[in-house]
Amino acid sequence: MLIREAKKNEFLLLKKQRLASYKIYKEKLSSKQWAMLETHLSSDINHQPGVEVFVAEMDGQIVGSVALFPADSKSYAGTSQAIECPEIRMLAVNPDFRSHGIGKLLVEHCIDISKIRKQKFIGLYTGCFMKHAIKLYEKMGFERISSLDFSPLDDGVFVKAFRFYL
């Protein structure tokens, strides 16, 4: 398995792969919630300066991706707030390659980079309905920071905050 930086000409493929990866949540969400998630996954927010996108490649095929946002980069769309630590976002694994440790390898890669850069911690957010992702993050040693949780549509569906101390 090769973890490498994504090439610009791969970004459209990565968007499609993210949408395919997250499609399992479509039935768990209201149409409004799914539309918001789909818009986020399809956005070009990972094209801003300093954001690194990494892919997992197996036998020449991209099987997963993740974006690593640097500390002090723009927060989420619609806000002007900067994030205080590097953040892992848009972790996606091709549905045909799940349960092969690809997500874990991509997260570990982001952790390793953050350690090299002497960061104190790395953060991430995940939907409360993403049970498998939450299990992975907890198993890897991420801690919940419930004070940073939020509900984008103020409808009881929360985005949970996690932090890994380096």
From TrEMBL:
**Pfam families given in the database record:** Acetyltransf_1
Q: Where is the N-acetyltransferase domain?
A: 1-166
Q: Which domain of life is it from?
A: Bacteria
Q: Which UniProt keywords apply?
A: Transferase
CDD domains according to UniProt: NAT_SF
**Which InterPro entries does UniProt cross-reference here?**
Acyl_CoA_acyltransferase (IPR016181), GNAT_dom (IPR000182), NAT_camello-type (IPR050769)
UniProt protein name: Acetyltransferase
Q: Which species is this UniProt entry from?
A: Planococcus kocurii
